[in-house]
Amino acid sequence: MDGGNGKGEFGRIEDFIAIAKEGKDVKVAIDLKKQLVRQKVPHGVTEDAKREIGMYLLTAIYTFSVVYTFRAEEQVNQISKVYMLAFSEESPDDLKINTAIANARLKMDYQRLKDAKITFEEKYF
Hints:
By secondary structure, this protein is of the alpha+beta class. It has helices at 13-21, 92-115, and strands at residues 25-40, 52-68, 73-87. The protein has one domain. A three-stranded antiparallel beta sheet has the order 1-2-3. Strand 2 and strand 3 (73-87) form a beta hairpin.
C-alpha cells in the first residue's frame, strides 16, 4: 500500500486503519500541537487590510508503529493532520467553538482507530 509519496510508505490515517483490519499489530502515539502562523495579504487586496494575518492550526501528529512478525521488524511512520485553522484574534467564545469542533473531528478519527483495534491514548485540544 503506497501512501502517495512514491517510497511505499504510508501517508494517511486510512492506510494504517486498512492494515490493522488485515490483522497487523498497529499502535499509535498522538501528539497535539497549536501552531501559530502568519498569512501574508497580497498587496492591493484592500487599502485598509493588515499586511499579515495571525492564524493558528490545531494539529495532531500521529506516530504509527506496525509490527511485522513474519519479518521480525517494526515500521514507524509519522503523519500530521490539521483539525482547525482559525484567526488568532478571535473572541474567547470563537476559540471555544473552534476547539470544540477540532475535538469533535478528532473524536471521529479516534473512533475509526478504535474500530480497527489500533491502540492509543486519547488526547484532546
